[in-house]
Amino acid sequence: MTNFTGPPSGAIRNQPISDELKRVLQAAAEAAGVDTIRINSGGQDPPGPGARRTGSTRHDHGRAADVQCVAGGTTLTFTDQSAPQAILTFVTAAAAAGATGIGAGVGYMGNRTIHVGFGVSTSDHSQLTWGAGGRSATAPQWLRDAARAGWAAPAAAQPAQAGAGAPGRFVVIARDGLKLRGGPGTNFGSEKTLPAGTELTVVERSMVDPAWVRVDLEGDGLLDGYVFAAFLAPAGLDGHHEDAPEPHPDDN
CB neighbours of 159 closer than 8 A, spacing ≥ 6? Predict the structure, then answer.
C-alpha cells in the first residue's frame, strides 16, 4: 500500500486531497512501483471572504496536488528532455485513472514535483499538460506522450465497470510486458509477464482497487489473476500500442 505524506501544515494549500484524487494517485503509484507520495501542496479553500488560497481553482476542495514520487527511499527526478520509466508509468497510470490536468517541468516546479489533478471546476474535463509558466506549449514531450497514452487507455476498464456480466477482449499494450499478479496490487506476487500483444478477457474490476482488473487468459471461463488496466486496450484497435510508454517489467 502506498504511503501518503503531507501536505505541510504551514502550506497555504494544506488541506487534504479528495478521495477521488487519492484513488488516482494510489493507482499511479502502484503501477509505477512508487512507495511514497509526498504531497507538497494539497487542497485549499474555494474563493470567498477570508479564504486561505492561492493561484487557480484547480486545488479547490482537494481536487489537485503537487506531488513528489519516492521509490526505495529515493525521490525520483526528471529533466525537461527525459524522465525515468517510473515517472513515465506514474503519469500514464494517473491519466488512465482519471487525472485530466498534469503539469511538470524544471522551469515549472523543479525537477521533482508533478501537478496531478482534474479541471478548474467539476464541469471541466479538458485533458491538459503544461510546463514552465503553466503553459501547454512548454510541457516536456515525455509528459505529453505519457499522459496521452493514459488518456487513450481508460476504455480498457469499461467492461470491468459494467461488472462480470459484460466481459470483453483486450490486448496488452506495455511493450516490455505486463505482469499478471495473484491479487489487485504490486504487493501481490507476479505469476508471469504477459508479452505485448497478448489478448485476454477482462472479467471484472477489482472491488479492492478499481485500477486493477481480473482476467481470463485462455477464454475457458477460469480466472488467471489480475493486471493493471491502464496497460490494456480493446482488441482489434490496430496500432493502439504505438502510443504507449515502455514500462519496465518490474513496474507494473
Answer: 166, 167, 168, 202
